[in-house]
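Hi there,

I know you've been waiting on this one. I reran it after we fixed the sequence typo, so this is the corrected version. Both the input and the resulting structure follow.
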Amino acid sequence: MDLTVAAGLSLYAVALVGLAWRSRTREQLEYLAAGRRLTLLPFVATLVSTWYGGVLGVGEYSFRFGISNWLAFGVPYYLAAGLFAFGFASRTRRSAALSIPEQLRTAYGPLAARVGAGLVLLLAVPAAYALMLGDLIRIYLAIPLGWAIAWGLLFTMACAATGGFRTVVSSNALEFTLMFLAFLVLLPVALVRIGGFGPLWQALPESHRLWDGGLGAQAILVWYFIALQTLVEPTFYQRCYAADTPATARRGVLVSVLFWVLFDFLTTFSGMAAHVLLPAGTDPVLAYPALGRLVLPPLANALFAVGLFATVMSTLHSYLFLAAATIGHDLAPELARKVDERRWIMAGLVVAGAAAAALALALRSVVAIWHDVGSIVTAALLLPVATSHAPQRWRFGPRGAVSALLLAALTALVWIALRRPEGSYLLGLEPIFPALAVSGLCWAISRTRFT
C-alpha cells in the first residue's frame, strides 16, 4: 500500500462525507432535482464529471489503439451532445417531467413508461464504474477486487443516500476540479520523459497512428451510433430537469463539450504515452495508474491517484442515485398507490449496488459493458424518446412505442448472445444496427396504423 496515496484518499473521503452531510435535505424536489435551481457553473461541473467516469476504459482503449480513441470515444459524443443541446435540452427543462419514464408516460402512456423505466434502470446500474473503482482500490490500497468493489459501492451509496441529487452536484464540483488537475500533472511530465509530442508520435506503432487503430471502419463507426445514447442519456435529462432555466440547460451542455474536448486531449495522449513508456505486458486497463507511478514523484502521484478516484466516483455516484431514483420514483409507484419514495430510493441504492457488483465481477471489461449495455438500451430508447419531444404527427402510437422498446432491446440482446467466440457478429453487423432497424420499422408501422 502506498501511504502517501492512502493519506490523499482519506482526505478526499472526508471531504465527500462533509459535502454529503452539508447537502442533506427533507424536501423531495431538492432530493430528486436540487430544487430545479442549477445555475450554469454547477450544471457544467456535474455534467462534465458525470459523463467522464470511464477513465480507465479510455486508458485501456488509447493504450491499445492510439489516436482512434478520440475518434471512437470523443468526436461521436461531442456530436451527439451538440444534437442534444440544440434539439432536446431546452424542451426537457420546459417539461414538467423529472425523468425519462415520466416523459414516455406523457407521450405514450403508462405501459411505455414502465418498459422505459426498466431500460433506464439497466443503463443506470453502474457496473463499469464499480469495476473501475474496485480496480483502483485494489491497485492503490492492496485490497482484493471483490472486497474493493463492495467497499467502494458501500461508501458511495452512503453518500448518495444522505443528500440525494444535492450531494451528487456538490461532490461533482469537487471531482470536476480534481479530474483535470490529475491529467494536467501527468501528461506534461510524461511528455518531458519522452521528449515531446513529436517523439511520442514517432515512437508509437503504426496502428496507433491510424484513424481506426487498425480495427476497421465498422469498429469505429459503431461508436457513432452508440454515442446516440446521449440523446436518451438519463443523466443528461436529470441535469436538464434540474437546471434553473431552459437557457442554462442548453448552454450548459454546449460548454460541457468544450471541457470534454480538453479532457479527451489529456487522456488520449496520456494513454499513448503509457504505451511508449510502460513495459510490454502491462495491463491496458491499468495504464494510467502504472504511468503515474513510473513518472511522478510521490506527492504528485498521490494527487493523480485522487484525481483518478474522483473521475470514477463522480460517475458512480451519479448513476447509483439515478438507478435508485428510477426504482423509487418511477417503478415503485407502479406497485402501490401510496409509496414513500425516499424509502424506496434507499432500497433502490441497495438493489442497484448489488446489481453493479454482480455485473462488474461477471464481465470484468469496462469497454464490453459500455458496448453491450449501450447497444441494447440506445437502440430501444432512441426513437421513442426522441419522437416524444416531437409534434403528435411524428410520434409512435402508444402500442407502437411499447413494441419498439421491447423488440429493439430483444433484437440487440439476441444479436449479442449469438456473438461468435472470436467476437464477430451475425451477418457481420454490430447489434445496434439491426435493433435500430427494428425500432424504425415499428415506427413506420405505428404511423401507418395511427394515421
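Quick highlight: Residues 155 and 343 are 18 Å apart (CA to CA).

Best,
R. S.
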